[in-house]
């Protein structure tokens, strides 16, 4: 992981190849679990954490520098805030007499949950990784 | 139900190991064992939604805890008034457990819940919402405002951590 | 009733760890153990003997399901517990940068 000397290069070649092959499947599984919450066990929060774990997987296998070039922190913050605003919009417009049907309840709310949880947790992980620069002196 | 008792005894043993061991990395691994035991307990108690969520949440918090504890050493500390502290804590915990065992006699028997509100939810989950997963129907339809509160709590934690972990703009070498 | 008592023993192990240990990471581990015990207690209340999980399948009837309402509450509690653990760990890392130690009896100087 990050505590050996080669933290810019990440892990070995086998791990990098397997990560390139399985990354799309883990992301797809996370979106599947999140959107099918009303028929099978799962829901928006489980799907969001699985999406965050797939992005953490990229960062652990390829090292900090390579992963941060592809997934910029500004994009993550915009996604998390968009999820929160979408949720507030649904709640405020549904407080009247009419309720949202299938589209509002089973699609928009899980999508906003997945956006907040998935990208928000990955932004936390990036912040905790980038936080310390003087670890070597005291450790 | 012998399986629940066995899983709980395994969780208590792993928790005692996590509390008593001096090495920080071993404590983090032991609390990972407690979390996996809790996931198995949720499967035995017929809650598949919770088992899935507990597994992935456990993995993420293990990654973050290992990131915090690696390369940092544990201080071997000896303090004064050690006997008084431990005696007071054990006295408080024994009073708590005695009061709890008296209060538990008034609860319904384990295995037969009173389902006064849940009966209404179970009866009209499929006709009114069309969702087959009753837990998801409760969280997205009948009690969606609780879900709003939970999303707000996660969002507040994200904003709080991004504020704590920000690099300060002025140079902070004099504060160390 | 012994199942409820075992669950409360797990809670009191976590409480002992929060009250007696001097390392911040041990306190975070104790708070995590208390979180697990409370979620388990919530799900234990709603268990029906020889019941089914609360998901409708084709050809099954309602009458034998476990209680779904404590499960919805425990789901909220697990996610909020994760947020609490992450916030505590980030505070602990920031404290280590400033003071150089994890010992809570040495963190009592008011530095700017």
3D structure, described in words:
The complex is a heterotrimer of chains A (139), B (176) and C (112). Chain A contains 6 helices and no strands. Chain A is mostly helical and 139 residues long. Chain A has one domain. The longest helix of chain A is centred in the C-terminal third of the chain and has 28 residues, at 102-129. Chain A starts with 12 loop residues before the first helix and ends with a helix. Chain B is mainly α. Helix content of chain B is 72%, strand content 0%. The N and C termini of chain B lie far apart (57 Å). The model of chain B has no long low-confidence stretch (mean pLDDT 85). Chain C is elongated. Chain C has a single domain, classed as Helix Hairpins. In chain C, helix 2 runs antiparallel to helix 3 (69-99). Chain C is an all-alpha fold. Chain C is 64% helix and 0% strand. Classes of the chains: A mainly alpha (139), B mainly alpha (176), C mainly alpha (112).
Structure characteristics:
heterotrimer; B: about 180 residues; mainly alpha; 8 helices; C: about 110 residues; Helix Hairpins; about 0% strand
Furnish the topology, listing elements before pairings.
The complex is a heterotrimer of chains A (139), B (176) and C (112).
Chain A: H1 13-35, H2 44-62, H3 64-70, H4 73-93, H5 102-129, H6 135-138
Helix pairs in contact in A: 1-2, 2-3, 2-5, 4-5
Chain B: H1 2-20, H2 24-44, H3 48-69, H4 82-103, H5 116-123, H6 125-129, H7 134-142, H8 144-164
Helix pairs in contact in B: 1-2, 2-3, 7-8
Chain C: H1 2-20, H2 24-45, H3 69-99
Helix pairs in contact in C: 1-2, 2-3
How many structural units, i.e. domains of chain C? Answer: 1
Total number of distinct structural domains of chain A = 1
Strand content of chain A: under 5%
H/E series of chain A: HHHHHH
Low-confidence segments of chain A, ≥5 residues, pLDDT <50? 1-7, 133-139
Please, what is the average pLDDT of chain A?
77
Tally of helical segments of chain C: 3
Concise synopsis of the structure shown:
The complex is a heterotrimer of chains A (139), B (176) and C (112). Helices cover 72% and strands 0% of the residues of chain B. Chain B has helices at 2-20, 24-44, 48-69, 82-103, 116-123, 125-129, 134-142, 144-164.
